[in-house]
Amino acid sequence: MTTPLALRGGFVFLDPEQGRVLRVTPFQYNPDSLTRSLQPRGAGAGGGERLEALRLSGPPQETFRFEAEFDAADRADKGGRPDPAAGTGLFAVLSALESAIQPTGAQLRESDRLSSMGMIEIAPVEAPLTVLVLGRRRVVPVRITEMSVAEEAYDSALQPVRAKVTLSVRTLTTDDVGFDHRAGALYLRYHQGKESFAALGAYGSDAVGLTGI
Predict the structure, then answer these.
(1) Structure pTM?
(2) Contact (CB, 8 A) for 147 and 161
(3) In a 10 Å sphere around its CB, with 0-12 CB exposed, 13-18 middle and 19+ buried, how is residue 160 labelled?
(4) What is the pLDDT of residue 110?
């Protein structure tokens, strides 16, 4: 009997306008645990009309927090292809993660150029669209809100070779980006997937010892 190959989670970074894949950063080891928090957005959360108590003003604010481990000495097989990051420790994977929360050098130079021309208001640069992939059924557009890197071992060139990265991300909803944005389409698919699974798990009131409510 063949054991099915375990899928690896990770991040996919997309061009927010064209949808082109810029980078894929898989987890070397899937997280052992993950904390997911949902904060409902109710119309009556601050009090007021009684009829508002059951109304929802939009999707809940959902956050994920987990720890990803990386070890340069135990890199996954790349199918016999040469590894361009060989000999650089974990600089490649850590830099790929950090690129989601920092402007590029070209963007920084362009902002400086516009500032030197006397531009009073300069539009903030747009980061890549970050998509958290946790299996085929959870493909979630997110914003990284916190990243903590614990470098635990180094090679002779002081390059990190073992690290734990603690990440907090917030789901981007249609309220954040609208329905026409690529992130909005990804969120709507994720949201509707939850509705489908909720329908599969439906029970009658007898499951909790009641004949009716």
Answers:
(1) 0.83
(2) no
(3) buried
(4) 84
Beta carbons of 17 and 183 less than 8 angstroms apart: no
Buried b / exposed e across 74-90, counting CB within 10 Å, b at 16+?
eeeeeeeeeeeeeebbb
Domain ranges of the chain: 10-45+53-76+84-199
Mean pLDDT by 10 residues, the chain (213 residues): 73 90 90 94 65 81 95 64 73 90 85 79 79 94 96 93 95 93 94 90 76 73
Within 10 angstroms of residue 115's Cβ, the number of other Cβ atoms is 11
56: Cβ–Cβ under 8 A, 6 or more apart, which residues?
A: 40, 41, 42, 43
Predicted pLDDT at 10:
94
- Distance separating alpha carbons of residues 173 and 188, to the nearest angstrom: 8
Give dist(CA 52, CA 107) in Å, integer.
45
For residue 59, which amino acid is it?
Answer: P
